[in-house]
Amino acid sequence: MDYDQLLDACCEVGVQLIRFGGEIPRAEDTIRRLLRAYGLEGEVFAIPNCVWASVPTPDGHIHAWMRRVPPIAANIEGIERFNDLSRRLCADPPADPAQLRAHCRETLADLRSYPASMVLGGYFVGAFFFALFFFGGLAEAAAAGLAGLVSGAALLALNRARANAFIATLASAFALGGTACGLLALGVPINLEVTIAGGLMVLVPGLVFTSFMSDLLTGDMLAGLATFARAVLSAGAIALGAGLAMALYHRLSAADAITWTAGYSGPLCCLFAFAACLGFCPSFNVQGVGALLCCLGGAAGWAVYLAVLRLSGSPFAATLAAAVLVSAYAEVMARVRKCPATSYLMIALFPLVPGLTIYQAMDHGIRGNTGLFWETFFRTFGAAGCIALGLLLVSTVLDIFRRRKR
User: Fold this and answer.
1) What is the pLDDT of residues 198-212, one digit of tens each?
2) How far, in Å, CA of 130 to CA of 145, rounded?
3) 263 within 8 A of 99, measured Cβ to Cβ
4) Distance in angstroms (rounded) separating the CA atoms of residues 59 and 168
5) What would the mean pLDDT of 166-189 be, rounded to a whole number?
6) pLDDT higher for 126 or 59?
7) Cα dihedral 188→192→198→204 (10° resolution)
8) Considering only CA atoms, which of 83, 190, 194, 75 is closest in space to residue 132?
9) In what order do the strands lie in the sheet with 43-47?
């Protein structure tokens, strides 16, 4: 048997999982299971942009492999397809390692994707309903939807041109802030805070803000620090781009934004959360009935958040409880539908992502309110920590249960 070819093909499955946004431990475990299906015990180590693997063969030689992971683009369809492929290969490994590579190529070729028009429509819908979710009116929702659409179009164009991710995010955030500020300068009566916060949700790299905390809490320091760097760069690009547009607006225009906000009932906010999550399904490539199930998890999580917030008065306790519910829901759906829990977490956690406080921290920084900036900054990362802790609690309980069961 060609062990180099076997190692290369097994690791290809793990590389594709990471590339499409799968967790690092899942990718490492997938590679180990594939090697074990051929009677080999391998060592695997991965970080978000690289995978190393080695395996000792029966003749006493050690074969090693390393590959850089392509730029990560969240694609739930890709995660589910390659997870299903790994299950099939572990159950019935082909005798020829070359067939493993062929299966990977076939899986990549068969991936479904949404047309650009639906992705742009999703950006509009997501920003529209998140503006309502942040207690904006119809004017703020329409303005946020337009800003999200312009920002999404800029992001798609720059990604297709293979622009640097930091520059692409910065330019898209500037387009978003410029659109919102431009509408206000033209006399459209909108709450700028709600409008920009709703639009910014289309740029916030949802799970990145919580996955680095989860990696750090589980002791995976290198992966956690690498993901933390991505989170900081993304947040910095968003803040710099939108902040520059706002700074130009405040310098060139004397028009003031209104501060009025609407009031909605808890059930209506949950409905807004469901619809907002639905808008993100095309950009995350969620196919079929899985899209509705992901959005249902987001609405259920927000319902728990509101209930616990009313009882405890603590947004951190409410965020933790909601994250536990969403994580448990994702684990149940993963077992029912035989797919990774990440597929549900990416979308369902969006209502809990502190998008409004990200905007507020940026606004305080622009205005020079240092004390308020740091207070809001720590509140943002505190919420991210609560989400990560909730996910970790559920995964730890499940791991203990599996070990006891074995």
Assistant:
1) 888 888 765 565 565
2) 9
3) no
4) 50
5) 88
6) 126
7) 130
8) 194
9) 43-47, 50-56, 62-68
Side-chain-side CA neighbours of residue 216 (13 Å): 16
Q: What is the pLDDT of residues 293-310, one digit of tens each?
A: 889 999 999 999 999 999
Length of the chain: 406
Q: What would the mean pLDDT of 122-136 be, rounded to a whole number?
A: 91
User: What is the per-residue pLDDT across 142-159, written as a single tens digit (0 to 9) for each?
Assistant: 999 999 999 999 999 998
Nearest residue to 341 via CA among 400, 297, 406: 297
The CA distances from residue 250 to 108, 185, 363, in Å, are 48, 10, 12
The first and second tokens of residue 168, run together, are: 């692409």
Q: What's the rounded Cα separation, in Å, for the pair 267 and 271?
A: 6
C-alpha distances in Å from residue 295, one per residue of 115, 325, 347: 21, 14, 7
**Residue position matching structure tokens 């159950």:** 91
| Cβ–Cβ under 8 Å, residues 298 and 331 | no
* pLDDT class of 371 with cuts at 50, 70, 90: confident
